[in-house]
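Help wanted!
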Amino acid sequence: MKPDLTVKKYYDALENGDILGRKCSDCGNVEWPPVYSCNECGGHHTEWIEMSGEAEVTEFLPPAGALNQVKEFMPYAVGYVRLKEGPVVNNIIQGITKENAEELRKQLPLPVKAKIVKMEEGYSRVLFTIDE
Amino acid sequence: MGNYYNTFQTKTGDYARSVSIIGVGNSPYMITHKDPEWNGITEVELFAQSAIAAMDDAGITGKDIDALTYSQLFTETSAVIDPNVFALDWLGMRGKASWHVESACTSPGIAFDNAVMAVASGKYDVVLAGGVDIAQSKPRDNMPACFREPQEAAQLHKIAAKQWQDTAYTRYGTDNGVIMFEDYVYQYMDKYGVTAEEMDDAFIGLTISESRSAAVHPDATMKESYIDIAKKAGFDDVWDYMRSFHNPKITNHVRANEGIKYADGSACVIVAATDVAEKLCKNDKPMIKVLGTGASFIDHIHPDNLTAMTREATRQLYERTGLTGDDIDLLYTQNYMAPDALHVVEEVGYIPKGKAHEYFKDGRTAYDGDKPMNTGGGIQCFGHCYGAGGLLMVAEATRQMRGEAGTAQVKKVPKTTLIRSQGGSQGTIMIGLQTMDKQ
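Answered by r_m:
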């Protein structure tokens, strides 16, 4: 058995500005974050792809305010993000405020872009921002 | 010393339907953070690699599996709760049932037992039982699990040992928890008139046998036997080496090489209803039937707890299945110290009473002996991975029974195998497996 360090590769790629996913060779479904298997067909023949970073918000919850939110990312709301390649995930969407939330809700689905941010501990993560 | 078999006897019923093992897989055992290829692997990845190996062995994918039982002991230092959930995505099983089991090193045996019961009950047709621990390292604080730092076994056990401070209620093993593993040695010596030197020879012989088994197994942590290690140290006779300062006594009867070789690793076993398996499996490998299991758990404060549990769990299994010791072709037992093997081979009837010390000394329990035990080398030589050990034994037994164990194959392909999965504080699961006759 040879090791397949997918988690490390994913996080290392973020340091280079690349967001990686895995695409199923059997059915074409894309998994993000990348995992070994496909959760559409159940198979485990998947290959690395580079994600475009393009997505849309299909639903979001009203911003909860400073008491419950991560200050370094504010202003934002949490919601459902559907990536262009197919996966839908819960994530943070920056640019949604208490003031503009109502207006933005009327425009759903909202185009957003993936953004790589550096965490205090030294690793990076992905969140999304309104695509101006 | 007397015997204190203070257990209740449980009568167990029959399975509602037959259950078979259809796929097995395991990782090599190693210290992952010291291996340049494996350094940075996470627990869920190591688990998933074994799981996918088991699926390939069975010729199935995640869509064919109904549920997952997941064994991992050190979730505290791995900084996770419900790791079973994360594993589902990696296996192509998102949204399916899963549960995490933990009962120290008995966890993998319980994961297997639960999977078998889940299928035998009729609720699920196919269940994957898997186990993993990467306990020789841990994720750095507040970082993803691929960013890790080393963790010494002593440091790790301090976490478990906090409970040992309560000498009334939680696993009171008297002093360092090691001495009580040799309680049966004194009873054996008294019963059969065996000397301390003869016992020393027995445990040395057993350890040499296990190292020979490990040396021919591709996944074991030990890559060479003590015979070769002794030669490199300048000893032509391995027995001189094993009696030398290279292998000092650490208790009255246990030497340094007769203890635990900690390792990271994973192992997975897929079980299915036998009638489903016959249609599902796209291979013509011999079907291995789960005859049954027995279970017994006793706190370490109680004398003779290890012997009592083996006796009770074996009784449950034998009573329900009709098995006797004479039926057993191959035995696996998790012996944290070599002396633990002594009571096991007697209680299950594998070796005649009073003869174990001779069999061990003469190497008859090696993989090429007439009473093979712990192919691969057991805890002393293959290695010990807390969350995976019991399942590794099932995987190893399955390969032996199919005749596909390669260089580690026992001479006479076993038909009936007995497995003792055991762990603190304490628990024992006995598992009986048998190759099904071709229809």
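OP: Thanks! One thing I noticed: Chain A is about 10% helix and 40% strand.
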